[in-house]
Specification:
Layout: E1 2-6, H1 14-25, E2 43-48, E3 56-63, H2 67-79, E4 83-84, E5 87-88, E6 90-93, H3 102-108, H4 114-126, E7 130-142, E8 158-166, E9 173-178, E10 183-188, E11 196-203, E12 207-215, E13 217-224, E14 229-234, H5 243-246, E15 251-254, H6 259-264, E16 270-275, H7 283-294, E17 301-304, E18 312-313, H8 320-330, H9 335-346, H10 352-366, H11 383-392, E19 402-409, E20 414-422, H12 426-429, E21 438-443, E22 457-458, H13 460-473, E23 475-477, E24 480-486, H14 489-493, E25 496-500, E26 503-505, E27 510-512, H15 514-520, E28 524-525, E29 529-531, E30 546-549, H16 551-562, E31 576-581, E32 584-590, E33 603-605, H17 616-619, E34 621-622, E35 625-629, E36 634-637, H18 640-648, H19 653-667, H20 674-683, H21 692-703, E37 705-706, E38 714-715, H22 719-739, E39 743-754, H23 757-760, E40 776-781, E41 790-791, E42 793-799, E43 809-815, E44 832-835, H24 843-846, E45 856-860, H25 890-903, H26 906-919, H27 927-945, E46 964-965, E47 980-981, H28 986-992, H29 1016-1029, H30 1040-1059, H31 1072-1077, H32 1087-1112, H33 1121-1140, ...
């Protein structure tokens, strides 16, 4: 309802009137509102004064969400008028209705404090100015000379101008601040005289330092973590008069702003702007003030005055000829060395002048050393440092671990990383000794995050050029030519693919290239398996992605898996495995009926599992690849979408708060005892690479140890253990605060399988088969420490992440123990959730469009979290598979990768859905959320179906209001108050109830070296060790071999800490404790990026730990007494070495590896003695 307002003081602004009206509408007389915790929303719009200026004409419009509230308000103000500056305002109902949709929006959205909008408008007004630019210069900061001695000060850096364009006569350029988007934009080109221009964008988040000063003219030097974003602008385009249409996709992303700039852009990312020197103002002073207004820290601004000016010179480091000669020289080195030298150049650590000085010396030093190892060259000019690195570096033979080289293509750069341990695959395992010919390639934006386009930017032409050309043409690097090989679905979601360098294989007698490998793609004999029909109708098949195996085959698989397990005795044999076999992929579940058939069939697969047709040559005998064994239940956690959805189906906020408070309290007990410490580690799967929980638990249980002494326990706490606990606790609390990752008691995350009963029912001998009914599930839970299994029984909820639709959580009944007197084909299954194979559609398809090919389902038994209302599931019919009507080619695959990267908006869709659900009083039931839910489902299936989400006219539902909920600030550093409102949803309360403290650095204590065997752990272990080592248990010195193992370990650990950071800031390193715990604490705006980096870091660390363990005990399967005693002696010496070098980086974590090896040897020796 619109209400007219008269007699407003002309000096009053919109915010003053809003506050006066809010005092009435937010009083108790107008309570309560529909949504608990929300204030009644309304809008005030004052009419402009015809004379101009900032005054109003004394009138305005008040829009209220409903007629009822409008009449109530008019009645109220007639009795008790609102006054502003002693003037009574007059209100009366407007005859015409409000703007279409405005009243409904006000009804749905939260009230935003006018202080927030007023503060924003004030900043926008202060920043509504621009600076004339005379010249744009791209280059690098470099050190013109180095001190001759350690006592001499370091001279100021200079700026080498590698490319420049003047904007004084023929064109024009302007610099201005964009407060809402947190960036500085330099617009190049005149709309009056030129057809198009360019835009250079510097994000606030990328700024390290900003140098300002006068060098004849005012200048600004931007020292950024990432290169600026560059866009091409079309000035004179057809206009319709509709701003929404006219401002869409009129910019194009580019990698350079000029043909000459394209040569230096990959190497010269820094920007120097020369401003017009306005004699009537202090240009630099005005710029600095605007930086402060925009929220840039003053400590970031460096005032350059004599003698500390940033001198601008033209060194020509990256001229075409100079780069050609350098790349030609680098290509003559062996691949591992050439790759590292290229990385120094391309990653911006050294410029061509530095490398020219080093090349001859590096050639001498590398000489005839082995080829396949990581060579981490330091980013300095010191020849002596290089010599020290090489002197202690061990060029070892390649192990079974696949050490992978990584390349990231950004719009301007090529970033090189590695080699470091990465997951191998079936193709690479076929070519042992040639692993370094395969390389992983990522396509990402300058900040290493996935591409995101603003509405006005058309990214398609750029991706076709940058990504498409790279895929189709390949690239040269360090003397090798690489061509596109293939991608996997999981890698494609990270915008990553595989390339390879063709090589001659002597055993095969031919050159192996990408085409040959692709043609060859695609041990069980064909007589031991068969295909059987799916149950149910498409697209809702009950058995979509699941088959069966006999118990005999399951036993064979488990026996093979146990060969690589450290302690398989207490493990629970899985009932289901995720497999790849020929062209099939999915889950197979143990079916005991197959063992009774007598026809030799041990595996039955289904058409829904068939992803491609295998070659005839492979069908006779082929291996089963086990992707995952589901041997124990996973912990069920809440997450943000699930919390939002459950609240919208009736779950009370208090239920979430109770669980979060318990989780926070549990995390904060980490310092109380070793037991609590181990519980946190196991609950959140931290520290597994270093066996942290196992080692600490053993020290407590077998040796009466505790963190602190209480009189009866031996205290073993240390600064390093304190830091480990602090890192672990921070990681857990961060996930709770920023992801609502809250454990749910007595609830589980289980792989879904189908009830096979209907497949047998009615066959001879199967007349009395028990089958699950619609709305029923079966789950039997048994953890390794459980003596007896637990059957879930009663009302539970079931869901699958990500939840996006109100019907994605269904309430079902867990049947408990199977009934007696009937044949139950799933009664022997453990740690899976069995779903019914009857009804009009599968239960899995109701849950976010899931299936049973390996999807995990949350089964929640916690009564307070069960839905209070029943919601119909979404149809999730999906889009048709893309059909080219012909065989696809490599070019088609490349085109699809480009299209996928350009259309991969799943993260954007999910994020916007949650924001709108928070803003709307309807929550996830809002029509915009329902539309986004359907698009999310299509986006999830995109990599498999090849069809992008259907977005009409490129229009996504917009957020309902400008401000976002406070919980959306997530990990952003110092979020601006003008960007967020206080959410009244459960997520807002959960977010605000946790205060995260920055982890305090544990400073190394320069303690004197520990005397031999004087620490509590050594004292406790010495007697057992002496039984086998005798006097050798008293270590007097360390062998050169052991010292080499230690140095190799610390060198590789430094490499891990330097390689797997989230930051582009030079010098940033992970803590040793972060690697041990297996997390990265740095803040990140995209969770998927951190998850990917953490996975790589954990795999790299786990491989390093295993390498050290093999060095200490050469044969991990050793069971002879002499071998074990030798291993024990080496591990005991390693433990002693870690103590004596305790103040050195890496020593503490090296000690954990040694302790684990000591315990392994003692266990095996004890078993030998008992026998």
């Amino acid at each position: 309802m619109d209400v007219a307002v008269k007699f407003i003081p002309t000096e009053a602004d919109n915010w003053k009137v809003t506050r006066a009206i809010a005092a009435v509408l937010h009083s108790e007389d107008f309570a309560p509102v529909e949504v608990e915790g929300r204030l009644l929303n309304f809008r005030v719009k004052l009419n402009d004064n015809p004379a101009g200026g900032i005054r109003n004409d004394g009138t305005g419009i008040l829009t209220l969400p409903t007629e009822e509230i409008g009449h109530k308000f008019l009645s109220y103000v007639s009795r008790d008028p609102i006054k502003i500056d002693k003037r009574k305002l007059k209100f009366y109902k407007q005859k015409r209705p409000p703007q279409p949709g405005l009243a409904e929006t006000l009804k749905k959205t939260p009230y935003i404090n006018p202080d927030i909008e007023e503060a924003r408008e004030l900043k926008l007004w202060k920043l509504d100015a621009k600076f004339r630019v005379d010249a744009v210069q791209f280059g690098i900061f470099y050190q013109p000379k180095y001190p001759s001695s350690a006592k001499d000060p370091l001279s100021p850096r200079a700026f080498s101008v590698e490319w420049e364009r003047q904007y004084i006569k023929d064109s024009i350029a302007w610099l201005r601040f964009d407060y809402d988007h947190k960036l500085i934009r330099v617009k190049l080109g005149s709309e009056l005289t030129e057809q198009g221009g360019y835009s250079i964008v510097i994000n606030f988040a990328s700024l390290q330092k900003v140098g300002v000063g006068y060098d004849g003219k005012p200048y600004i030097c931007f020292d950024t973590l990432t290169p600026p974003i560059m866009e091409k602008i079309q000035f004179h385009r057809s206009m319709t008069g509709d701003k929404e249409v006219d401002n869409r996709k009129f910019k194009q992303r580019v990698g350079s702003i000029h043909e000459g700039h394209s040569t230096v852009a990959p190497y010269a990312p820094h920007l120097r702007i020369v401003l017009y020197n306005d004699p009537n103002s202090d240009v630099i002073g005005d710029f600095v003030k605007m930086c402060d207004t925009a929220g840039l820290a003053q400590s970031m601004i460096i005032h350059c005055r004599d003698p500390y000016q940033i001198e601008a010179l033209r060194q020509g480091f990256f001229g075409s000829k100079r780069l050609y000669e350098l790349h030609k020289a680098l290509g003559k080195f062996d691949w591992p060395v050439a790759f590292q030298l290229e990385s120094l150049l391309r990653n911006g650590l050294l410029h061509t002048g530095d490398l020219d000085e080093l090349l001859l010396r590096i050639r001498d030093l590398t000489g005839n050393r082995a080829k396949r190892s990581s060579l981490f060259l330091p980013p300095r000019k010191s020849y002596e440092m290089l010599r020290r690195v090489l002197d202690k570096f061990e060029f070892s033979n390649p192990s079974k671990t696949f050490r992978c080289y990584h390349i990231t293509f950004t719009p301007t750069r090529t970033i090189l990383e590695g080699p470091y341990a990465s997951q191998s695959n079936r193709v690479i395992r076929q070519y042992p000794g040639f692993e370094d010919h395969f390389i992983r390639v990522d396509f990402r934006d300058e900040d290493r995050l996935q591409y995101r386009w603003d509405r006005e930017v058309d990214g398609t032409p750029f991706l076709i050029e940058r990504v498409g050309t790279t895929l189709k043409v390949g690239f040269d690097l360090a003397g090798r030519r690489f061509e596109f090989l293939a991608y996997s679905s999981s890698a494609l979601r990270e915008h990553a693919v595989w390339f390879m360098n063709p090589f001659y294989h002597p055993e095969k007698g031919r050159v192996i290239d990408a085409g040959l490998i692709r043609d060859s793609l695609g041990d069980l004999r064909d007589s031991e398996w068969e295909e059987q029909p799916d149950l149910g109708d498409k697209p809702y098949e009950f058995t979509d992605g699941v088959g069966t195996i006999s118990k005999t085959l399951g036993d064979r698989i488990w026996k093979k898996l146990c060969e690589t397990k450290r302690n398989p005795v207490n493990a629970i044999q899985p009932s289901a495995y995720q497999i790849r076999f020929l062209g099939y992929k999915g889950v197979v579940v143990v079916d005991e009926q197959l063992d009774k058939r007598g026809d030799g069939i041990h595996m039955r697969l289904r058409p829904s599992m068939r992803k491609f047709e295998a070659k005839k040559d492979d069908i006779q005998i082929a291996p089963i690849e086990i992707a995952q064994a589901f041997e124990q239940p996973n912990t069920c956690y809440l997450n943000r979408p699930l919390v939002m959805l459950l609240e919208d189906v009736g779950v009370r906020r208090d239920a979430f708060q109770t669980l979060q408070d318990a989780a926070v309290a549990d995390a904060k007990t980490i310092d109380d005892s070793i037991s609590h410490f181990c519980n946190v580690l196991s609950s959140h799967r931290l520290g597994s690479s270093y066996r942290l929980k196992e080692i600490m638990g053993r020290l407590q249980d077998h040796y009466n140890m505790e963190l602190t002494s209480n009189g009866g326990k031996i205290a073993i706490d240390s600064p390093f253990l304190q830091q480990i606990r602090q890192v672990a606790m921070t990681d857990v609390l961060r996930d709770i605060k920023h992801s609502a990752r809250i454990p749910v008691p007595n609830s589980y995350l289980l792989v879904g399988v189908a009830d096979e009963g209907p497949a047998y029912s009615g066959e001879p001998g199967y007349e009395n088969v028990y089958c699950l009914g619609v709305g029923e599930i079966y789950a039997c839970i048994q953890k390794p420490q459980d003596k007896e299994p637990t059957w879930l029984e009663g009302n539970v909820s079931i869901s699958r992440s990500p939840v996006v639709h109100p019907g994605d959580v269904q309430r079902v009944r867990a049947i408990g123990k199977p009934p007696e007197g009937q044949l139950c084909l799933f009664g022997h299954l453990k740690n899976v959730v069995v779903m019914p194979s009857v009804g009009h559609r599968s239960l899995a398809s109701c849950l976010g469009g899931g299936d049973v090919d390996g999807d995990l389902f949350s089964v929640i038994c916690y009564d307070s979290l069960l839905p209070r209302s029943l919601e119909e599931p979404a149809l999730y019919e999906g889009l048709p598979t893309k059909d080219l009507q012909r065989d696809s080619s490599v070019e088609d695959i490349c085109d699809f990768v480009v299209e996928y990267i350009n259309s991969d908006i799943l993260g954007l869709l999910s994020d916007r859905l949650l924001v709108i659900a928070d803003q709307s009083s309807l929550g996830m039931h809002d029509e915009n959320c329902i539309q986004l839910a359907e698009l999310c489902s299509q986006a999830v299936d995109y990599p498999k179906q090849g069809t992008p989400p259907e977005i009409e006219g490129n229009q996504l539902p917009r957020t309902l209001i400008r401000c976002k909920p406070d919980w959306h600030a997530a990990e952003v550093v110092s979020p601006r108050q003008t960007d967020y409102y206080e959410s009244s949803k459960a997520l807002g309360f959960l977010f605000r109830s946790i205060k995260l403290d920055e982890p305090k650095p544990v400073l190394p204590e320069n303690l004197p070296p520990i005397q031999a065997l004087s620490d509590p752990i050594s004292v406790a272990l010495i007697e057992k060790v002496r039984l086998y080592l005798g006097s050798s248990a008293f270590v007097e010195g360390h062998s050169s071999d052991l010292l080499k193992i230690f140095r190799r370990y610390t060198d590789e650990l430094r490499y891990i800490c330097a390689t797997h950071t989230l930051s582009n800031t030079p010098g940033v390193r992970l803590l040793e404790a972060e690697v041990v715990v297996g997390t990265i604490l740095a803040k990140c705006s995209q969770k998927r990026w951190r998850t990917d980096r953490m996975y790589r870091m954990r795999l790299h660390a786990e491989t390093l730990v295993q390498d050290v363990q093999r060095s200490l005990l050469e044969n991990s399967e050793a069971d002879s007494m002499p071998e074990l005693i030798q291993g024990l002696e080496l591990a005991w010496n390693a433990w002693d070495l870690s103590l004596r070098h305790g103040n050195e980086f890496g020593a503490n974590s090296f000690g954990f590896i040694a302790l684990g090896s000591i315990f392994d040897c003692l266990d095996k020796l004890g078993h030998q003695s008992a026998v």
